[in-house]
Every structure is written in structure tokens, then in C-alpha cells.
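R.M. (postdoc): so does anyone remember the format we settled on? I'll just put the C-alpha cells first.
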């Protein structure tokens, strides 16, 4: 996929997501079927490079509860969720929670590293490629986040932002 197509595709969905988030501030979080559905399929196998160029593989996290968050530095709803992920990692990391931010940024790892340092992101950040997007069924909006159980099954998928307290309930349930 060309960078322009990807940018246009993600920008349109980001704008829609941003509007949904703003509406959610006034109307409460939107209720969507995919937010309440247990997906229960096996998570795909993947390997990506972190911001230092080291390989990160899905099999490193066997037995852990994993949050895979497809995001971008320019995505307002994505940036809005970062403080919640930072807190979740602090609160539940010792219980086996691993958060992986999969950056869709085209500006490269140096740009994302600076952003992550500025925001104090305390979880693993990797750079996406087309194959990982496809392996998760295609990413048609950002943020798109997958919650993976200790046995490697996707137990929840969300498109768009969700209030931290609501997402924490799902994470806590997966941990226990």
C-alpha cells in the first residue's frame, strides 16, 4: 500500500474516530457490538523491530496478557489513550500485562522515539509493517487495539478510543 493511500485511509478514519471521541465526551462512550464481543480467535504470530532496531516477537509474551495497540503520533484519540496505557502498565505489569504500541507512523523510529520519550511511554513500541496489519485482519482505523489472553487468544478488539476505566475492566478480567 502506498504511503499516500495509507495516510488518506487512516486520516479519514482518524477524523471519524476523533468526532466519535468528542461526541463520547458529551454523550458517553459509544456502544458498539465489537467492543462487547469476545473474538476468541488465536492471535497471529508476528515479529517487528522496536525503536532501537531490536526484533520483538509475539512468542516472547507467551503466558502474558498482551495489549496490541495500533496507533500513530498524529492521531489525537491515540495520543489521548497513552496516559491510560502508561498507568495500566505500571499497575498490572507485575501481574503479567504487556502493552505493545505498534506505530503506524511513516516518519520512522527516530520520530516515534522522541515522541515516546516526551510522553513518558513505559511500554514497548514497535514499528508496524504491512504484514502485521494484514495478520490482524487489516487495520482500517486508529487506534485499533487487541486484548490477547494468556493462552494467546484475542478476547477483545476495539476500534477507536475507549475511556481508560472501561478498558481497565477488560484488562483486569483477562488477568484474573
Amino acid at each position: 500500500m502506498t504511503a499516500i493511500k495509507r495516510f488518506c485511509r487512516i486520516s479519514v478514519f482518524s477524523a471519524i474516530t476523533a468526532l466519535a471521541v468528542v461526541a463520547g465526551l458529551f454523550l458517553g462512550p459509544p456502544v458498539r457490538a465489537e467492543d462487547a464481543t469476545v473474538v476468541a480467535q488465536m492471535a497471529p504470530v508476528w515479529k517487528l523491530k522496536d525503536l532501537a532496531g531490536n526484533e520483538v516477537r509475539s512468542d516472547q509474551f507467551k503466558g502474558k496478557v498482551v495489549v496490541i495497540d495500533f496507533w500513530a503520533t498524529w492521531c489525537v484519540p491515540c495520543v489521548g489513550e497513552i496516559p491510560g496505557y502508561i498507568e495500566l502498565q505500571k499497575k498490572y505489569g507485575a501481574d503479567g500485562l504487556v502493552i505493545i504500541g505498534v506505530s503506524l507512523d511513516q516518519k520512522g523510529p527516530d520520530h516515534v522515539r522522541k515522541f515516546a520519550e516526551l510522553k513518558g511511554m513505559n511500554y514497548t513500541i514497535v514499528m508496524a509493517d504491512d504484514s502485521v496489519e494484514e495478520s490482524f485482519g487489516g487495520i482500517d482505523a486508529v487506534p485499533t487495539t487487541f486484548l490477547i489472553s494468556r493462552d494467546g487468544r484475542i478476547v477483545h478488539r476495539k476500534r477507536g478510543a475507549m475511556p481508560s476505566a472501561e478498558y481497565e475492566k477488560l484488562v483486569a478480567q483477562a488477568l484474573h
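R.M.: ...and that's the designed sequence above, right after the C-alpha cells. Also worth knowing: Strands lie at 41-42, 47-50, 55-57, 65-71, 97-103, 124-127, 144-148, 153-159. The chain has six helices and eight strands.
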